[in-house]
Model the fold of this input.
Amino acid sequence: MTAHLVRRQNVVRGEAPWWLLPTMEYNLWEPVDAELSGLGRTGTSIKTARDFTVATLSDWGLGELSYDARVVISELVTNAVRHAGEPTRVRLLHHASHLVCVVADPTDRPPVVTDADYFAETGRGLRLVESLSCSWGWRLFDGRGKLVWAAFTTPATLHQRRASA
Done:
């Protein structure tokens, strides 16, 4: 791996699902995805993204993941609004054994995990993303912004692993 690739993508925790990075690189959002575009720089965009996530997961029969995914989407969209100006889209992907939540924004600045002071009112969002997802990271696109993603193992996969253990 070259230094250029390391600068452009980072998996902060866990491993990216095998299909995710090529999907982002070549814009191949298949087989199952849902997208919410045109989010603005308001608090309502965060609620809209949460509602979209819950409704989509319910439609896909993944309601069991709704609470965690809703919190993660809320944190990722909040970060995009706060640090990038606005999120441009939210995308949900369900492929094989994973659900992936992706938030795109127009900046090239990667997300930064911080250690918030005990009394701080902000600075814990990415720690929540880290604790609720099985893996998460980001991908920069030269001059086209970035995608921040978080992956979850789908409930059917969890049940299969528990049954085989």
Observations:
- Helices lie at 3-8, 20-26, 43-59, 66-84, 125-132, 155-164.
- Confidence is low (pLDDT under 50) at residues 1-8.
- Residues 88 and 154 are 26 Å apart (CA to CA).
- The beta strands are 9-13, 32-37, 89-95, 98-105, 135-141, 145-153.
